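Lab meeting, action items carried over

1. Structure of the two-component assembly. Owner: GW. Status: complete.
Input record:
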Amino acid sequence: GAGVSQSPRYKVAKRGQDVALRCDPISGHVSLFWYQQALGQGPEFLTYFQNEAQLDKSGLPSDRFFAERPEGSVSTLKIQRTQQEDSAVYLCASSRGRTQETQYFGPGTRLLVL
Amino acid sequence: GNSVTQMEGPVTLSEEAFLTINCTYTATGYPSLFWYVQYPGEGLQLLLKATKADDKGSNKGFEATYRKETTSFHLEKGSVQVSDSAVYFCALSHNQGGKLIFGQGTELSVKP
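Predicted assembly:
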């Protein structure tokens, strides 16, 4: 595809449910990033993949958050036992190379936990 | 740690006014600096970037200069248009992995 795509665009979950958010990066992009953006705030880093390797997961807020990219392309961010404070927009970005290259963002998934 | 601070919004200007959005950063070493823009209903887009001190990034009439002595990367435009209404984010990244650290964003509203 021409850009980064994410699905679903909107997700409403009841507290305690598990959710899975999908990211399709630009074809051939080596690096993939997940960010969390709370309402009225800037995005905050969650985790980073280089191909299928998860090189940095320092931003994941708890062990309920898990991300994978098993074949080095599509990535899934999973949140287990969702809490109200998980409500946010989850952004995925990809870049061609390994360091400091331009990141291209998807439209985001807006998650609302009731 | 590394951080980015932006001037608070919202900023409201009349069309053709001069725009400055202040951005300062705290970082070790020599980060790359970015301005991203988020138009209503759209995703984040890179507006401009600078990778070393004294570099000037420019795009669509916007400019920002990487000032290491003042740790700043202020965004400027000489004459704003209604279509520039958006939220603007200043960000930095380091060599190590390239993750972006964002400021809190500044909402700009341009009135005709």
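2. GW to write a short summary for the group page. Key points so far: The mean pLDDT of chain B is 93. Chain B has no helices and twelve strands.
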